[in-house]
Each structure stands twice: as C-alpha cells, then as structure tokens.
C-alpha cells in the first residue's frame, strides 16, 4: 500500500495496490469460486462423468438466499468511500461474461481479541486490500468481511449476486447514501472514521498488462474539472481581476531546428538547399527577434512566457536574452524537428533525460 501526503488541511491518500485474487490471497476474506471443484468427492450416483463438490460448509444465507444480477459500469473516482459487513449471511458475487471486476476487502474485525470494542466496529486499515477477480470467477465472503460492491475495471462487468431479502430491503429503503446499521447491513462512510482517504490504483493498465481484457481500453484524458486527469491545482479565486472578462496571455515559442529540416506545409517552390524562407525566419527569430520581443514586453510592463526547446537554451545568445527577460519558462521538447511518436518506454525515458 502506498501513501501520498497532501498539503495542510487535506487528507492523506493511501493507495491500495492491485493483485489478482486467488484461493490463497483471498482466504482471509472468503471462498473463491473458480473452475476447480471445491471439496470434491460428494457421492451422487446418477452422474458418472461429473466430479461433484461438497456444499460450502460455512456458506449461510440465513432463512433463504436472494439471487439477482447487476451490471457495474466504469467510474472515474477511485476512492473507497464505503465499507460494510454482514453478520448473518455470507454474501456471494460471481462475475459472468468476459470482464474482470475489482473488489476491496477488509478482514473481519468483529471477533478480533486484540482489538477493543470500538475498533472491532471498524475495518483494520492495515488489512484492507484491493483484488482483481478474473472473468468467470466469484467469491463467497465470510461473515464480518468488510467489503463494498464490485467495481468495473474499464468495460462493464456483470455479476450474479447472492444476498438475503433482509439486506436487499434494508439497502433499498435508504432515501440517500448514508451510514446504516439495520437489516444485517452495517455500512460506514470511511471519512467519518479515518483521517485519510483510501484509493485503489487505476485498474485499466493492470488488467490489460495481465491479459484479463481482450483489447486496450481508452484512457481518460480529461478530469471532471476540465483539465488533465489526475491533475490537482489551485483554482483562481473569483474577483481577482476586478471583473475583467478577457485576458491575453503572451506565449513566445523559442525553437531550433535540425539543419535542412523543412517547415510545416512546405510548398513546391520552397525546395531549395538551403530553403531560404524557413531558414531565414528561424535564424532571425533567435538572433534578433527574441531580443526585440523581450525589449518590447519590458517597455510595456508585461511578462510573457517562453516555451523553449532544450537545444535552444544551449545557444548562448538565446540563453542570455531569456535570463534577462524575467519571463516564465516552459518545456517544449528537445528541438522542433524531432518527433516523439511510436517510441517504446526505453526510448521515451532516454528522450526525457536528454531534454532535461
């Protein structure tokens, strides 16, 4: 489990690493349903070609099991908001179809002799884990196991759910998502009990890496705030510009090109060697144009932003102008002739190192 410290006033985030669930690592939480027969040897004489497994000894749905299906769709929020437990039944989930599912489980605490009464009513933070169950697998969870509903790993995942009428009725009776402790459903909103937030890792790269989905899944590029997914920034406070509604932010590209590289949209008549039009304005920009722009912005009291190629910063005259300009600087690759598409990971890392 990893953790990430936030700024003052924000909760620490604890990340749950993902692992593929199997009979061994899920044993503290329940009994895995897979393609292997559990407890084989039940003697039913009618089916000679069938290996029969004995009943799950500790599986219990009180008076009668209530069965239903559910389909879970992708969600962008990876926070673990709720955990619940049941003391009078062993809830079951079986994934049907071709999609894996993500489960967050906590070991039972109700019978832990090393905990006091208060902490037996809470999940143990050191024993919370996130598992990926492959398609066609399932689990019957033990009484008292902390859990929430399965989560999509990208594509929709369908589940066959074994429950009791009592628990289903209790959940359906809630007018809004709230903590509850009735109908054999003890459900906690975790932020009310812990000073940190649990999150599980994005499952999409994980299930693709392990071959649990058929094809790569699209990654979310934009977050709900309207900028890059996963980014966190401080928004500008309302009223900071005294009601001004239109702003101009000057950005100056400071670039270099490999010798002989053509420009964008090269026209047939621009094919000489050297190609004078593009070569001319490129040389002028770094030799004179950059300095003139710096002086102009100084004269009018405006600070610009320069987005620069790392090779441009190695040109002494360019570096001197940028240092004296007072501008903010932004990274803009190594040079403006080299592309970065279709690289493998090693090539990307080498390109980053070269630019930096």
UniProtKB/TrEMBL annotation:
Gene3D superfamilies named in the record: Glycoside hydrolase/deacetylase (3.20.20.370), Ureidoglycolate hydrolase (2.60.120.480)
Quaternary structure (record): Homodimer.
Taxon lineage: Eukaryota, Sar, Alveolata, Ciliophora, Intramacronucleata
Entry protein name: Uncharacterized protein
Pfam families linked: Ureidogly_lyase (PF04115)
Top-rank lineage group of the source organism: Eukaryota
Entry keyword Lyase: yes
GO aspect biological process, one term: allantoin catabolic process
GO molecular function: ureidoglycolate hydrolase activity; ureidoglycolate lyase activity
Catalysed transformations (reactions): (S)-ureidoglycolate = urea + glyoxylate
Keywords, in A-Z order: Lyase, Purine metabolism
